Amino acid sequence: MISLDNLKDKLATPCNIVITTHHKPDGDAMGSSLGLYNYLIQKGHHVKVITPTDYPFFLQWLPNNPEVIIYTDHQTQSNVLIKNADLIFCLDFNSLSRINEMGAEVKNSTALKIMIDHHLEPEDFDDFRHWSIKACATAQLVYDFIVNHLNERDLISSDVATCLYLGIMTDSGSFRFPTVTSDLHRIVADLIDLGANNSRIHQLVYDNASEERLRFLGYCLSNKLEVLREFNTALITVSQADINKFNIQTGESEGIVNYALSINGIKLAAFITERKNEVKLSLRSTGDFPANEICKKYFNGGGHRNASGGQSTDSLAAVTAQFKAILPEYKNLLLQ
C-alpha cells in the first residue's frame, strides 16, 4: 500500500488515468466514475472511463458521458489504455471478478490501483484504498476523498456535483435507506450548493422510463409476483422470453425488486431473471436480515446486507426452486 502523501504526489502532475467500475454499472457506479473524471480533468490529467459492459440509457445524460468507453465494444483500445495507465481508479467494486474480462488486464497492469468502495470483504489487489462499509454510496466516498483527503473542494464543479449527487441519490434509495445519516444530508446539501440540480437529476433518472418498461413492470406485478407469507418473502421470476417480449434494455428491470419488498409484512424480496447464459438474482431485505449471506453462500455473489446479488448457471426453474428451498433455514429470522 502507498500512503496518501504518495498518492497526492502522483496526482500533482498530469498522468494517464483509467477509471473503471463494475459490470452493468448502476447510478452509483456511473455517478462516482464520471464525478471523479470531471474532477481529474480539471487538474490536467489524461483520463478515460472504461466500463466493462453497457449501462442504462437513463444514466447517459451525465456530464461527459460521451467520453466513456465500453470495454465489450472497444476491447483493443481499452487494453492499450489500461496497459499505459499510471493510475487505475477502481470504483464501486472490490473484486476483480466484478469487471469481467477486464480483471486480468487490470491485475497485470503496472499502474497503481486505487480502490474507492463501500462493499464488504475487499480483495487485496489495490495499492491505495479509500473504503468504508458505513458509506451509503461510493459517490459519497469520492466526495470525501476530494474534499477531506485532497483538500480540493474548490474543484467540485457543477458537473462533479451533479454526478456525485446522482450516485448518492440512487444508492440511498432516494435517501430512505438506513445508511443515510445527517452527515450524508450535509454532503448532499453541499453538492446542491455547488451546482447539483436535485429536482432535474431525479426527473432524468426516475421519470424517464420507456413505455416498454412500464408495461413490463405491470406484467411482473400482475403475472410474475409470488408471495410466500409463511416466510415473509416475495419473489418475481422473469424468463428470457419475457425480456424479449417487452424488449427490455440494460437497466430497465432495475428497482422492480423493491416493489416486492414494499408489500406489507415482507422482509425478503427476490427478482430472479433468466439471461442468455445464466440466471441473475437481485435480493432486497429489511432490518437485519442478511440478504448478502444468501447470495454469497448459495449464488456466487454478495453485496450489502439489505441489497445484494448473485448468479447461477442452472435453469430459471432450478434457481427458483433452490431459492425457495433455502427459506426454511432462515425462517426464524424472516418471521421476527
Explain this structure.
The strands form 2 sheets. A 6-stranded parallel β-sheet has the order 3-2-1-4-5-6, sandwiched between helices. It has a 6-stranded mixed β-sheet with strand order 7-8-9-10-12-11. The protein has 14 helices and 12 strands. The chain has helices spanning 4-11, 27-40, 75-84, 102-108, 138-149, 158-171, 182-193, 198-206, 211-224, 240-245, 256-261, 291-298, 316-326, 331-335, and strands at 16-21, 46-51, 69-70, 87-91, 112-117, 128-131, 225-228, 233-238, 268-274, 279-285, 302-303, 307-312. It is globular and about 60 Å long. By secondary structure, the protein is an alpha/beta fold. The chain has 2 domains: 4-206, Alpha-Beta Complex (inorganic pyrophosphatase (n-terminal core)), CATH 3.90.1640; 211-335, Diaminopimelate Epimerase, Chain A, domain 1, CATH 3.10.310.30.
List the helices and strands and how they pair.
Elements: H1 4-11, E1 16-21, H2 27-40, E2 46-51, E3 69-70, H3 75-84, E4 87-91, H4 102-108, E5 112-117, E6 128-131, H5 138-149, H6 158-171, H7 182-193, H8 198-206, H9 211-224, E7 225-228, E8 233-238, H10 240-245, H11 256-261, E9 268-274, E10 279-285, H12 291-298, E11 302-303, E12 307-312, H13 316-326, H14 331-335
Parallel strand pairs: 1-2, 1-4, 2-3, 4-5, 5-6, 8-9
Antiparallel strand pairs: 7-8, 9-10, 10-12, 11-12
